[in-house]
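Revision sheet: structure tokens.
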Amino acid sequence: MGVASLPPAATADQDVTDAEIHARASAIVEAALDSVPARLILLHAAAMLKATLAHGQPYPIAALEEFLADHSAATMDLLRDARELDGETPSPERKS
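Predicted:
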């Protein structure tokens, strides 16, 4: 896995902007793109993070379902944005 050049991290008590979050996430993803093991590690880490966050909630299964729904919606938004930037026409495709 390549070494990413990450923007500086905010301290725990600082608010971060959506642009800062996206920039840091992009750097992490770019570092993993060319390596199958690195991609698998990053996907596994994301799953671990969601499970760990849900585990600390009063209703962990419901919390995980909410995290997954939010993450799925955000992922679809990112894909749609990327396709629009590529000049592709959004399609109503849906895999059953």
